[in-house]
Protein backbone atom coordinates (compact mmCIF):
# COMPACT_ATOMS: atom_id res chain seq x y z
CA UNK A 1 0.00 0.00 0.00
CA UNK A 2 1.08 3.57 -0.66
CA UNK A 3 2.61 5.54 2.21
CA UNK A 4 1.91 9.18 1.42
CA UNK A 5 5.13 10.81 2.66
CA UNK A 6 7.34 7.98 1.43
CA UNK A 7 6.01 8.11 -2.13
CA UNK A 8 5.95 11.92 -2.21
CA UNK A 9 9.67 11.89 -1.37
CA UNK A 10 10.62 8.73 -3.26
CA UNK A 11 14.23 8.96 -4.51
CA UNK A 12 13.96 8.58 -8.29
CA UNK A 13 17.52 8.26 -9.63
CA UNK A 14 18.96 11.05 -11.77
CA UNK A 15 19.52 9.91 -15.36
CA UNK A 16 22.37 11.04 -17.60
CA UNK A 17 21.99 10.21 -21.26
CA UNK A 18 24.40 10.66 -24.14
CA UNK A 19 22.12 11.62 -27.01
CA UNK A 20 23.20 10.66 -30.52
CA UNK A 21 21.68 11.32 -33.96
CA UNK A 22 20.67 7.66 -33.96
CA UNK A 23 18.53 8.25 -30.85
CA UNK A 24 16.75 11.18 -32.48
CA UNK A 25 16.09 9.20 -35.66
CA UNK A 26 14.89 6.14 -33.78
CA UNK A 27 12.46 8.17 -31.68
CA UNK A 28 10.96 9.78 -34.78
CA UNK A 29 10.60 6.40 -36.48
CA UNK A 30 9.06 4.89 -33.32
CA UNK A 31 6.20 7.42 -33.41
CA UNK A 32 5.53 6.88 -37.10
CA UNK A 33 7.53 9.42 -39.09
CA UNK A 34 8.84 8.20 -42.42
CA UNK A 35 5.72 6.27 -43.40
CA UNK A 36 5.05 8.67 -46.28
CA UNK A 37 8.03 8.13 -48.63
CA UNK A 38 7.13 11.22 -50.67
CA UNK A 39 7.03 13.72 -47.79
CA UNK A 40 10.54 15.21 -47.86
CA UNK A 41 9.83 17.31 -44.76
CA UNK A 42 9.74 14.16 -42.62
CA UNK A 43 13.23 13.21 -43.81
CA UNK A 44 14.65 16.05 -41.70
CA UNK A 45 13.77 13.96 -38.63
CA UNK A 46 14.68 10.45 -39.83
CA UNK A 47 17.63 10.82 -42.23
CA UNK A 48 20.90 11.39 -40.38
CA UNK A 49 22.60 12.37 -43.66
CA UNK A 50 20.55 15.60 -43.69
CA UNK A 51 20.62 18.52 -41.25
CA UNK A 52 18.83 16.52 -38.59
CA UNK A 53 16.06 17.97 -36.42
CA UNK A 54 14.65 16.56 -33.18
CA UNK A 55 10.91 16.11 -32.70
CA UNK A 56 9.92 18.32 -29.75
CA UNK A 57 7.90 15.48 -28.20
CA UNK A 58 11.16 13.53 -27.72
CA UNK A 59 11.41 15.42 -24.43
CA UNK A 60 9.20 12.74 -22.86
CA UNK A 61 11.82 10.01 -23.41
CA UNK A 62 15.06 11.98 -22.93
CA UNK A 63 16.83 10.93 -19.72
CA UNK A 64 13.80 8.76 -18.97
CA UNK A 65 13.92 7.17 -15.48
CA UNK A 66 12.25 3.97 -16.71
CA UNK A 67 9.27 2.25 -15.11
CA UNK A 68 10.32 3.23 -11.59
CA UNK A 69 6.74 2.82 -10.29
CA UNK A 70 7.28 -0.97 -10.52
CA UNK A 71 9.78 -0.77 -7.65
CA UNK A 72 8.04 -2.55 -4.73
CA UNK A 73 9.36 0.14 -2.38
CA UNK A 74 6.91 2.66 -3.91
CA UNK A 75 3.88 0.68 -2.68
CA UNK A 76 2.23 1.16 -6.08
CA UNK A 77 0.21 -1.63 -7.70
CA UNK A 78 2.22 -1.40 -10.92
CA UNK A 79 -0.08 -3.65 -12.99
CA UNK A 80 -2.89 -1.11 -12.61
CA UNK A 81 -0.90 2.01 -13.50
CA UNK A 82 -2.34 4.08 -16.38
CA UNK A 83 -0.97 7.30 -17.83
CA UNK A 84 -3.63 9.98 -17.34
CA UNK A 85 -2.24 13.33 -18.50
CA UNK A 86 0.95 14.72 -19.98
CA UNK A 87 2.36 18.23 -20.27
CA UNK A 88 5.52 19.43 -22.04
CA UNK A 89 7.11 22.87 -21.80
CA UNK A 90 10.04 23.50 -24.15
CA UNK A 91 12.60 26.13 -23.13
CA UNK A 92 15.36 25.39 -25.68
CA UNK A 93 15.66 23.29 -28.85
CA UNK A 94 16.39 19.64 -28.01
CA UNK A 95 19.90 18.55 -28.96
CA UNK A 96 20.70 16.13 -31.77
CA UNK A 97 23.85 15.19 -29.91
CA UNK A 98 25.29 15.69 -26.43
CA UNK A 99 24.64 14.85 -22.79
CA UNK A 100 21.30 15.53 -21.12
CA UNK A 101 20.43 15.12 -17.45
CA UNK A 102 16.95 14.22 -16.24
CA UNK A 103 15.78 14.78 -12.67
CA UNK A 104 12.34 13.36 -11.88
CA UNK A 105 10.33 13.88 -8.71
CA UNK A 106 6.83 13.27 -7.42
CA UNK A 107 5.11 16.63 -6.96
CA UNK A 108 1.72 15.57 -5.60
CA UNK A 109 -0.64 12.74 -4.68
CA UNK A 110 -4.44 12.75 -4.69
CA UNK A 111 -6.40 10.00 -2.91
CA UNK A 112 -9.71 9.44 -4.72
CA UNK A 113 -10.85 6.96 -2.04
CA UNK A 114 -11.00 3.22 -1.40
CA UNK A 115 -11.69 1.38 -4.64
CA UNK A 116 -11.46 4.61 -6.69
CA UNK A 117 -7.71 4.82 -7.19
CA UNK A 118 -5.29 7.71 -6.80
CA UNK A 119 -3.56 10.36 -8.90
CA UNK A 120 0.19 10.86 -8.85
CA UNK A 121 1.72 14.05 -10.25
CA UNK A 122 5.36 13.94 -11.30
CA UNK A 123 7.79 16.25 -13.08
CA UNK A 124 11.03 15.76 -15.00
CA UNK A 125 13.49 18.58 -15.65
CA UNK A 126 15.82 18.06 -18.62
CA UNK A 127 19.07 20.04 -18.65
CA UNK A 128 22.16 19.94 -20.80
CA UNK A 129 25.66 19.33 -19.45
CA UNK A 130 26.09 23.06 -18.67
CA UNK A 131 22.93 23.07 -16.54
CA UNK A 132 20.77 24.97 -19.05
CA UNK A 133 17.10 24.00 -18.76
CA UNK A 134 15.90 22.47 -22.03
CA UNK A 135 12.42 21.21 -21.16
CA UNK A 136 10.06 20.23 -18.36
CA UNK A 137 7.69 17.30 -18.73
CA UNK A 138 4.88 16.77 -16.22
CA UNK A 139 2.66 13.73 -15.86
CA UNK A 140 -0.51 12.69 -14.11
CA UNK A 141 -0.55 8.94 -13.50
CA UNK A 142 -3.76 7.15 -12.52
CA UNK A 143 -2.97 4.53 -9.87
CA UNK A 144 -6.11 2.43 -10.33
CA UNK A 145 -5.31 0.02 -7.51
CA UNK A 146 -4.08 2.43 -4.85
CA UNK A 147 -6.92 4.55 -3.47
CA UNK A 148 -7.75 4.76 0.23
CA UNK A 149 -4.27 5.39 1.65
CA UNK A 150 -5.38 8.44 3.61
CA UNK A 151 -3.90 11.15 1.41
CA UNK A 152 -5.45 14.48 0.38
CA UNK A 153 -8.40 14.54 -2.02
CA UNK A 154 -7.03 17.42 -4.12
CA UNK A 155 -6.08 19.55 -5.89
CA UNK A 156 -6.99 18.08 -9.26
CA UNK A 157 -5.61 19.82 -12.37
CA UNK A 158 -8.56 21.15 -14.43
CA UNK A 159 -8.72 20.03 -18.07
CA UNK A 160 -8.23 22.34 -21.06
CA UNK A 161 -11.47 23.36 -22.76
CA UNK A 162 -12.27 22.03 -26.24
CA UNK A 163 -14.22 24.33 -28.63
CA UNK A 164 -17.79 23.40 -29.47
CA UNK A 165 -17.24 24.25 -33.14
CA UNK A 166 -16.04 21.64 -35.61
CA UNK A 167 -12.26 21.29 -35.85
CA UNK A 168 -10.44 23.32 -38.50
CA UNK A 169 -8.10 20.47 -39.49
CA UNK A 170 -8.15 16.68 -39.25
CA UNK A 171 -5.08 14.49 -39.74
CA UNK A 172 -5.15 10.68 -40.00
CA UNK A 173 -1.90 8.92 -39.11
CA UNK A 174 -1.65 5.11 -38.96
CA UNK A 175 0.15 3.13 -36.27
CA UNK A 176 1.84 -0.20 -36.90
CA UNK A 177 0.99 -3.50 -35.21
CA UNK A 178 4.54 -3.81 -33.79
CA UNK A 179 4.91 -0.10 -32.93
CA UNK A 180 4.75 -0.56 -29.15
CA UNK A 181 7.65 -3.01 -29.34
CA UNK A 182 9.73 -0.38 -31.12
CA UNK A 183 8.62 2.45 -28.86
CA UNK A 184 9.56 0.68 -25.63
CA UNK A 185 13.21 0.72 -26.77
CA UNK A 186 13.13 4.45 -26.00
CA UNK A 187 13.31 3.39 -22.34
CA UNK A 188 9.60 3.06 -21.54
CA UNK A 189 9.62 -0.69 -20.84
CA UNK A 190 6.32 -1.23 -19.00
CA UNK A 191 5.38 -4.85 -19.90
CA UNK A 192 1.75 -3.74 -20.39
CA UNK A 193 2.81 -2.77 -23.90
CA UNK A 194 4.45 -6.08 -24.83
CA UNK A 195 3.22 -9.00 -22.72
CA UNK A 196 -0.32 -10.29 -23.44
CA UNK A 197 -0.54 -11.84 -19.95
CA UNK A 198 0.25 -8.53 -18.24
CA UNK A 199 -2.26 -6.76 -20.51
CA UNK A 200 -4.94 -9.31 -19.55
CA UNK A 201 -4.25 -8.78 -15.82
CA UNK A 202 -4.71 -5.05 -16.40
CA UNK A 203 -8.07 -5.66 -18.11
CA UNK A 204 -7.05 -5.25 -21.76
CA UNK A 205 -7.57 -7.88 -24.50
CA UNK A 206 -4.04 -7.33 -25.82
CA UNK A 207 -1.03 -5.05 -25.25
CA UNK A 208 -1.82 -1.38 -25.71
CA UNK A 209 0.22 1.40 -27.28
CA UNK A 210 2.15 3.58 -24.84
CA UNK A 211 0.26 6.75 -24.05
CA UNK A 212 3.45 8.66 -24.82
CA UNK A 213 3.67 6.98 -28.21
CA UNK A 214 0.12 8.17 -28.91
CA UNK A 215 1.31 11.62 -27.79
CA UNK A 216 4.16 11.39 -30.31
CA UNK A 217 1.76 10.60 -33.15
CA UNK A 218 -0.49 13.52 -32.16
CA UNK A 219 2.49 15.87 -31.74
CA UNK A 220 3.58 14.92 -35.27
CA UNK A 221 0.16 15.92 -36.61
CA UNK A 222 0.29 19.22 -34.71
CA UNK A 223 3.82 20.03 -35.86
CA UNK A 224 2.86 19.28 -39.45
CA UNK A 225 -0.27 21.43 -39.48
CA UNK A 226 0.51 24.26 -37.06
CA UNK A 227 4.30 24.41 -37.27
CA UNK A 228 5.07 23.38 -40.88
CA UNK A 229 7.58 20.86 -39.49
CA UNK A 230 9.66 23.65 -37.92
CA UNK A 231 10.74 21.84 -34.74
CA UNK A 232 11.58 25.02 -32.81
CA UNK A 233 8.09 26.44 -33.38
CA UNK A 234 6.48 24.14 -30.79
CA UNK A 235 6.76 25.61 -27.30
CA UNK A 236 4.52 23.26 -25.37
CA UNK A 237 1.51 21.01 -25.24
CA UNK A 238 -0.75 19.35 -22.71
CA UNK A 239 -3.34 16.62 -23.08
CA UNK A 240 -5.45 14.04 -21.29
CA UNK A 241 -5.43 10.36 -22.26
CA UNK A 242 -9.04 9.20 -22.34
CA UNK A 243 -8.82 5.69 -23.83
CA UNK A 244 -6.07 3.31 -24.98
CA UNK A 245 -4.90 2.83 -28.55
CA UNK A 246 -4.15 -0.67 -29.82
CA UNK A 247 -1.13 -0.94 -32.13
CA UNK A 248 -2.25 -1.02 -35.75
CA UNK A 249 -5.09 1.47 -35.32
CA UNK A 250 -5.33 4.85 -37.08
CA UNK A 251 -5.18 8.00 -34.95
CA UNK A 252 -7.20 10.96 -36.23
CA UNK A 253 -6.08 14.25 -34.69
CA UNK A 254 -8.71 17.00 -34.71
CA UNK A 255 -7.11 20.44 -34.52
CA UNK A 256 -8.39 23.98 -33.99
CA UNK A 257 -6.33 26.97 -35.11
CA UNK A 258 -6.30 28.15 -31.50
CA UNK A 259 -4.07 25.19 -30.61
CA UNK A 260 -6.85 23.11 -29.06
CA UNK A 261 -6.91 19.47 -30.15
CA UNK A 262 -8.19 15.98 -29.46
CA UNK A 263 -7.68 12.62 -31.14
CA UNK A 264 -9.73 9.54 -31.82
CA UNK A 265 -9.18 6.03 -33.17
CA UNK A 266 -10.80 5.87 -36.58
CA UNK A 267 -11.58 2.15 -36.53
CA UNK A 268 -13.57 2.29 -33.26
CA UNK A 269 -14.56 6.00 -33.30
CA UNK A 270 -13.29 6.32 -29.72
CA UNK A 271 -11.72 9.52 -28.37
CA UNK A 272 -8.26 8.55 -27.09
CA UNK A 273 -6.80 12.01 -26.41
CA UNK A 274 -8.89 14.88 -25.13
CA UNK A 275 -8.58 18.40 -23.71
CA UNK A 276 -5.44 19.08 -25.70
CA UNK A 277 -3.75 22.48 -25.96
CA UNK A 278 -0.64 23.22 -28.02
CA UNK A 279 1.49 26.37 -27.98
CA UNK A 280 3.40 27.45 -31.08
CA UNK A 281 5.61 30.46 -31.66
Overview of the molecule:
The protein has 281 residues and is of the alpha+beta class. The chain has six helices and ten strands; from the N terminus they run αβααβββββαααββββ. It is globular and about 55 Å long. The chain has one domain: Thiol Ester Dehydrase, Chain A (Roll).
In short:
With about 280 residues, the chain is an alpha+beta fold.
Order of helices and strands: HEHHEEEEEHHHEEEE
Main pleated sheet = 10 strands, antiparallel
Principal-axis shape:
globular
Number of helices: 6
Distance between the termini: 44 Å
Query: What's the total number of strands?
Result: 10
| CATH homologous superfamily designation | Hotdog Thioesterase
Low-confidence stretches: none
Q: Which percent band covers the strand fraction?
A: 25-35%
CATH topology name = Thiol Ester Dehydrase, Chain A
Helix content: 10-25%
Strand order of the biggest β-sheet? 1-3-4-5-2-7-10-9-8-6
Q: Can you identify the CATH class?
A: Alpha Beta
Instruction: Report the structural category.
Output: alpha+beta
Q: State mean pLDDT (0 to 100 scale).
A: 95
> CATH architecture, please?
Roll
Whole-number count of domains: 1
- Compute the gyration radius: what is it? 18 Å
Helices and strands in order:
Blueprint: H1 4-8, E1 15-19, H2 21-30, H3 40-46, E2 81-90, E3 98-111, E4 118-128, E5 133-143, E6 169-174, H4 179-183, H5 196-201, H6 211-226, E7 234-241, E8 250-255, E9 260-265, E10 270-280
Antiparallel strand pairs: 1-3, 2-5, 2-7, 3-4, 4-5, 6-8, 7-10, 8-9, 9-10
Please give a handful of descriptors for the protein shown.
281 residues, alpha+beta, Thiol Ester Dehydrase, Chain A, 10 strands, 17% helix, 31% strand
Amino acid sequence: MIEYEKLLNFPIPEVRQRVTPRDAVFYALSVGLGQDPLDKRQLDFVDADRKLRVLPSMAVVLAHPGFWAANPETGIDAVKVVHGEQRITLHRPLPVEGEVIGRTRVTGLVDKGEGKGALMYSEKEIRDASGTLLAVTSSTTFLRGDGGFGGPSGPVIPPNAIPEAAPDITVDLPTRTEQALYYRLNGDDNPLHADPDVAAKAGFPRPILHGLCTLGVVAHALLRELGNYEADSMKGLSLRFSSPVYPGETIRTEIWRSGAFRARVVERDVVVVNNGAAVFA
